[in-house]
Amino acid sequence: MKKNILTGLIFSVMTALSSTAQTLPPSGATETTPSKAEYFSWINHSFEGGDAVKTKANLDFFKWLKDTYGMQLDIYLFDAGTVDGGEIYGDTSTLKFKKQFPEGFGPISKQASEMNTALGLWAGPDGFGNTTEEAKKRADLMIGFVKDGFRLFKFDLCCSRLYPNHYHYFDSMFTEIRKIAPDLVALNHRLDFGPCTKYMTTFLFEGMETYVDVHFFNDRTASHHRVGVMTRKNPANLTRLTEDHGVCISSCIDYWEDDLILQAFNRNMILAPEIYGNPWLMRDDEYSYLAYIFNLHRDYRDILAKSVKRMPEAQYGPEAITRGDGATQFLTLRNLTWNETTYHVSLNDEVGLANSGKPVQVRLYHPYIEDYGKHSYGSSIDVKVPAFRSVLLKVTTEKETDRLLISGVPYQIINDRVGDKSDVKLLGTAGKTYKYNIQKGSFRKSGKVTFQGEAPKYDYHRKIAGMTKCEKSPDDISSIYYATCFAADNNTHELRSLKRSGETKIKEVQAARDAFFSQELFKERSVSDRYMFDDDTNTDFAVSFQFGDRRIDGVSSLMIDFGEKLDIDRLNISTYDEYSLYPHKSMTGSRILVSDNLVDWKTITFLAGVSSDIDLSKAGKVRYAIVEKAPLRVSEINAYKDGARLNRDKWRASNLFQMLWSDTKHVKEVWKHEFTLDEIQDGAYLCVAIEGEHGREGAFAGFKIDGEYVGCPDRAPSYECNPWECPTGSVRKGYTYYLPLTKDMVGKKIEAYAFSVGRSNEKPKELSADLWISAYPIPFKESVISF
């Protein structure tokens, strides 16, 4: 009885939301249908599917965003494996489904409906079986989901094709679905639906997913990882009846907001804003901005769907788009170069603005909000777009209707939706004073803010130098190379994101993280170096063979950083079995190199085995160790001194880098630049951009700072990883290495190095290297006010 009441409640709520139901075509939407905000769960799980625990935690996270910032999610989509899976069809009676959702979808549907969120489901297009009874069972299952409030189906070739002799079954099923939910969104991922294509709302634009540095990666040197996905174009005919796979928030999170601005306001497809993956891996201070983008889009989604036009690329840059109703237009601009770009924006029909005889109000909405004032129709203004960033601009001849408006100072909205007070972050340059005016409904306030500190001497983003080619390779180039190897890791992208964002103080965020990282499959995929230091012999760190061998020529080394100099009598490396030990063989000699400074190395031969004991009692102090050939799987590594086991909290390791001077790792050419910095702004980092085609893993960079070797912990495209879902894409040109800067580096001598590597008989490639400094986020000073 309770289930029937719940089903009726959800059905009535969803029906009430479909006010234009009777006017929609079979596809469920038109070019002017307003967008729906969506999250889908791919990469939070893979083909095993979601489960009740993760889903509850994820929905609690989105409810927290709504309760805290007013962010509304229209659709939460269960992705692959929840009912149907890769090359297999299922239903809610299978043991798999009952194990993952013991109480069925009922509790999840109730939880979602309480926050006005509909559910969606990934599915195969067929599943109609071999008899009319099996076809009816499949149709009843799918129609039942719709009756229970599901409002999106994502049909994917990864399950199967739709067989032509089943077209009539699909047509009959969807005829009934459209009677119940004319506005249900039907996504077509790489399928041929034949005559049933009419029921599909969208197709997968370019057939591409957007997992950063997996499916999309940079095609040029750049100051961050997301430039590749930011180069993405609109459909040639600017249709909104397609799906661009949204913005992945799981890997390489920095600059996610530029990516999302382009997805939501530039392409503005039927699903927008659309995100997927693991947004709970963001920093706590980023969630208010995520909600701000969702809220801003929701405020203007009707206007954004009215009309669209391209703006001249010669004047406005690549894929410049304006959307609006003629009285209010939103312009999205981007800059895909290393230097700041200024665009001359004409306030006339060129940007879609009709001449009403009224002045034009201009307001910047991203990367921060700023009132650009009123201007006469037909005039122009200059808009600066920072390097490798996007910009969102509103031009309007109407009275502004935003909940709050500030002029005189740049700002970001923390919260203007929940509670009686609004919270705003005022932004400015150190040493400057700003006078500002606030308008919120009938409320008016004027104020003044002075940002403390000395005014910056330099632009936070600038080129430091073109690096000079060395006549010969420095004697310590190996030390520079290994500094970067030990600074980096081969953990999965999601662990890198967790490290990037740090701890959270938000219980809903922590719960979603815990639900993700504690799942058994995450451990079983052996994607974390910490599994070698966790006292659990059932976990391990492995050289992954998902989607093929990621090693160069099938060879890599196990590199261990103990985090400090240690006296070690005995090092033990344990694997599971002889296979895990490969390429070593039990009772044969193997080599390990140890050092305390990356310069002086001692080579020690040991007898390999499933449990290898290595005598380091005569090695002296040890900070770094390199097992020449990485075992396929390592379960535990321990070190002992005077019979006592040493603490492993600081230990780190990698297993996909190669030793220098191996068959494929001979240094070919080196570039260098020496300099000092007398100012380091907040969030600053150095970029070593290696121009040209150097081959996969064919170029590296590193630093010496006051004589100390300092490696680059990050690179775009990303270092090879042992993947949770898919591996890092293979890229052969344009590597950019990054080094975060700290204040204590001011005044120190910094030597930057870039170098190409290859086989001993290979000719050097035509390359060059440049050195840049940048910062993320923009290093404004901040003052939070509430009113």
Description:
This protein is α+β, with helices and mostly antiparallel strands. The strands form ten sheets. It has an eight-stranded parallel β-sheet with strand order 6-5-4-3-2-1-8-7. It has a six-stranded antiparallel β-sheet with strand order 9-10-11-16-13-14, with helices on one face. Helix 1 packs across helix 4 and helix 5 (132-147) packs parallel to helix 6. It is globular and about 80 Å long. It starts with a helix and ends with a strand. The model is unreliable at 1-22 (pLDDT under 50).
Strand order of the largest sheet: 6-5-4-3-2-1-8-7
Largest sheet: 8 strands, parallel
Shape: globular
Helix count, per DSSP?
Answer: 15
Number-wise, the strands total 43
Taken as a percent bin, the fraction of beta residues is: 25-35%
Termini separation (Å)? 48 Å
Structural class: alpha+beta
Average pLDDT level: 95
Give the low-pLDDT segments: 1-22
Write the topology of this structure.
Layout: H1 2-17, E1 36-40, H2 52-69, E2 75-78, H3 95-100, H4 106-113, E3 118-123, H5 132-147, E4 150-156, H6 167-180, E5 185-189, E6 202-203, H7 227-230, E7 247-249, H8 256-267, E8 271-277, H9 287-304, E9 307-310, H10 313-316, E10 321-324, E11 328-334, E12 341-346, E13 360-366, E14 370-375, E15 380-385, E16 390-396, E17 405-407, E18 411-415, E19 423-428, E20 433-440, E21 443-450, E22 462-466, E23 468-469, H11 477-487, H12 493-501, H13 507-517, H14 520-524, E24 541-542, E25 558-567, E26 570-574, H15 578-581, E27 589-595, E28 602-607, E29 611-615, E30 621-627, E31 633-634, E32 636-641, E33 644-645, E34 652-654, E35 666-675, E36 684-691, E37 699-705, E38 708-711, E39 714-716, E40 736-740, E41 750-758, E42 768-775, E43 781-786
